[in-house]
Design goal:
Bound molecules: pyridoxal-5'-phosphate
Structural class: alpha/beta
CATH topology of the domain at 89-116 and 218-396: Rossmann fold
Shape: globular
Number of strands: 13
Strand content: 15-25%
Strand order of the largest sheet: 4-5-13-10-11-12
Helix content: 40-55%
Oligomer: single chain
Number of helices: 16
Distance between the termini: 52 Å
């Protein structure tokens, strides 16, 4: 284990700061929340600006760790990693056309990351920090992908991992956490019920609570989505970003990244992207709060959506999401639940991309934003594809009309003719 002094010496973190009331807390020691609300990691940005420039990044490996000065841990030989590659930004003209826009729509495809979702960014960072700070046992509630990612990184770090998920979590998520070596449990209820088990059990079970935003470092890992996007767009940020919002860590982290880059003077323009928090109308607490001008969100009755990552009725960082969305001039917007699966299939079949249902909600929301004029035809839009379609067998196959592949036994002319006549209806 790296000693605290080497970590401190090489690290630009100055302190942690309560997001709810600004209280300062010391870094380099295990911290959770303050007044039950999340903590920001703060850096000496002047010192970072002197230590590293945009050009220095070019020759570094194409992973999230290339931004190490802007991360809480710099001992690069001691990180817990499964290869967190920079993810591609892919132009999607067919998708843009289908939505009726004339501008550019890009998908930043996070499905390339270890365990098939962007949860790896947060977990690589949080578990690196947990290990450095001496944690030996973690627990977390999950709506799906967080459990698998936590299990994989914990196993690599030789940390014991306990995962709690709703019984209706997608089947791939149910298996992967256990296969990656976690003690994995199903719970009758919602993710908030799973969270309560972790909360109430943590003292007697000696768990460190790795729930979204209950420790300060998952945000910092997810922040690298924003850093990467800026670098990939030559430090000229797009006009609008659509992000599928559950607990909101990714949106909060990206907004923090843009602020830090602005303070460093690395951005080419002062215009920040408008941030759109996308949800499903089956579970849209952030949208409801946005619409009525509130800073804190109320849990909806009977939350349900096929986009399991968006099944988060109560986010501890609700005010951080809503502050970022409002400050950016964006909005929170709900897709119609019934549009999610068709949008997923349409995007996958028109662009060949592995789109998760959460991102499909963004695609359906983009259509609405176009129709309302909130997104202009010429805007450059980036949608985050937060996970791989293949993790959602249920959504892939729901209501699928007899897509039975023609079974061929030979290349006889009659059979080949039947292939031409057969059309897969999705
Ligand atoms: C967790 C998750 C989300 C929601 O992410 P937050 O940053 O917690 O809002 C969206 N999509 C997928 C695929 C997820 O796994």
């Amino acid at each position: 284990m790296t000693t605290a002094t080497t970590t401190a010496e090489k690290c630009f973190v100055t302190h942690l700061e309560s997001a709810i009331d600004g209280t300062h807390l010391p870094a380099h020691t295990l911290q959770t929340t303050h007044e039950g609300r999340p903590l920001w990691v703060r850096y000496d940005l002047d010192a970072i600006g002197q230590a590293v420039s945009r050009d220095d990044l070019r020759n570094r490996p194409a992973t999230m760790w290339r931004y190490r000065e802007l991360l809480p841990y710099q001992a690069i030989n001691d990180i817990v990693s499964l290869g967190e590659v920079m993810t591609p930004v892919i132009a999607c003209p067919q998708l843009a056309h289908g939505i009726g826009g004339t501008g550019e729509v890009f998908i930043k495809d996070e499905s390339h990351l270890p365990t098939g979702s962007f949860k790896s960014r947060g977990m690589a960072m949080a578990i690196t920090m947990a290990k450095a700070l001496g944690v030996t046992r973690i627990a977390l509630p999950t709506a799906g992908n967080a459990g698998g990612a936590a299990a994989a990184y914990a196993t690599r770090a030789r940390i014991e991992c306990f995962v709690f998920m709703p019984a209706d979590t997608p089947i791939v998520n149910r298996y992967e956490a256990a296969l990656f070596g976690a003690k994995s449990y199903l719970v009758n209820g919602l993710i908030s019920d799973c969270g309560r088990i972790v909360q109430h059990g943590k003292e007697s079970m000696r768990w460190f609570d790795l729930s979204t935003l209950k420790e300060p470092y998952r945000i910092e890992g997810k922040k690298t989505m924003g850093l990467e996007l800026a670098e990939q767009f030559d430090w000229k940020l797009p006009d609008a970003i659509l992000y599928p919002t559950g607990g909101g860590t990714g949106l909060i982290g990206m907004w923090k990244a843009f602020k830090e880059l602005q303070a460093l003077g690395w951005l080419e323009s002062d215009t920040m992207p408008r941030m759109y928090a996308c949800q499903s109308n089956g579970c849209a607490p952030i949208v409801n709060a946005f619409d009525v001008g509130e800073r804190f969100a109320e849990p909806p009755d009977n939350p349900h959506t096929i986009a399991s990552g968006l099944r988060v009725p109560k986010a501890v960082g609700d005010f951080m999401i809503l502050d970022a969305v409002r400050e950016s001039g964006g909005a929170a917007i709900a897709a119609d639940e019934n549009e999610i699966v068709p949008a997923m299939r349409q995007a996958a079949s028109s662009e060949g991309l592995s789109i998760c249902p959460e991102t499909a909600a963004c695609i359906a929301a983009l259509q609405k934003l176009h129709e309302s004029g909130a997104i202009k035809p010429h805007d450059r839009v980036v949608i985050f594809n937060t996970g791989a379609m293949q993790k959602y067998v249920e959504a892939m196959t729901i209501d699928l009309p007899a897509v039975d592949h023609e079974r061929l036994t030979s290349a006889d002319p009659q059979q080949l003719k039947s292939i031409l006549e057969f059309e897969t209806q999705i």
